[in-house]
Structure formats: C-alpha cells, structure tokens
Design goal:
Helix content is 41%, strand content 21%. The protein has 56 residues and is an alpha+beta fold. It has one domain (2-53). The protein has a three-stranded antiparallel beta sheet with strand order 2-1-3. β1 (2-6) and β2 form a beta hairpin. The radius of gyration is 11 Å and the shape is globular. Bound molecules: zinc ion.
C-alpha cells in the first residue's frame, strides 16, 4: 500500500506517491512552498486529502 496526494491547484499536475505517510506530507509541503509560493497546508489537512493506493 502507498499514500498518494494530488495537488488541488488548477493547472497543477503535481502528484506524489510514497510508501511513507510522512514522506508524502514533507513533499507536499515543499511543493506548496516552491511551486505555489504559499505557506504549506497543515499536516492534518494533507492527511485528510491523502489517498491510499494499492501497489503491486
Ligand atoms: Zn501544485
């Protein structure tokens, strides 16, 4: 199983998938700062929007 998060911003195709929940959160926060130049969403918001996916 892996964790997946898709950026909700319009015209942004950022998608992160990782086996580690903390890794996804870290990547999403970095993406938000670097790409959208805004303060990263809080951890609980990211967790709420995170999906779990099955990987072989
Ligand atoms: Zn984005």
């Amino acid at each position: 199983m892996a964790y997946q998060f898709e950026c909700a911003a319009p015209d942004c195709v950022f998608l992160i998938r990782a086996a580690d929940e903390e890794e996804v959160i870290a990547q999403v926060q970095r993406h938000s700062e670097e790409r959208h130049e805004k303060s990263p969403p809080p951890e609980d918001v990211i967790r709420e929007r995170m999906e779990t996916v099955d990987v072989e």
